[in-house]
Amino acid sequence: MNKIILVGTGGFVGAILRYVIGGYVQKWTASVGFPYGTLSVNLIGCLVIGMLSRMDEIRSVFSPEIRLLVFVGVLGALTTFSTFSNETISLMNDKRIYLAFLNIVIHIIFGLSAVLLGRIFIYLIWR
């Protein structure tokens, strides 16, 4: 139960950060044609998870509880793209290049396909 509270608390913070940062950047860029807000939270999340995961690899600075709070909760709610990117780099670092490439291809192709199928499904139901 304690783990769920840690993830939920971090998720609460991450979701608020996503809303605030993404909204601010989108408003600041005054763009209606490109999702700069989403891009910004994805890139910020990738930068932060890269820095923190490397710090932890070198110095073991995070307890399992803090990893749940920050990596899964805060960064997971801020952007799952950061987790995807970090896992892909970890596969590359482990010399599992084929799996890293497969991870990229599957996420992109199946992710886009799932969104398209979901949209088609709802269109067919509610047209």
From TrEMBL:
Regulation of protein activity: Na(+) is not transported, but it plays an essential structural role and its presence is essential for fluoride channel function.
Reaction(s) catalysed by this chain's protein: fluoride(in) = fluoride(out)
Entry keyword Methyltransferase: no
NCBIfam families cross-referenced by the UniProt entry: crcB
Positions with a binding annotation for Na(+): G76, T79
Recorded family membership: Belongs to the fluoride channel Fluc/FEX (TC 1.A.43) family.
GO molecular function: fluoride channel activity; metal ion binding
Residues forming coiled coils: none
Function: Fluoride-specific ion channel. Important for reducing fluoride concentration in the cell, thus reducing its toxicity.
One annotated Gene Ontology cellular component of this protein: plasma membrane
Cross-referenced HAMAP family: FluC
The protein's name in its UniProt record: Fluoride-specific ion channel FluC
Topology relative to the membrane: Multi-pass membrane protein
GO process annotations (BP): cellular detoxification of fluoride
TM region(s), chain numbering: 32-54, 66-85, 97-126
Compartments where found: Cell membrane
Keywords: Cell inner membrane, Cell membrane, Ion channel, Ion transport, Membrane, Metal-binding, Sodium, Transmembrane, Transmembrane helix, Transport
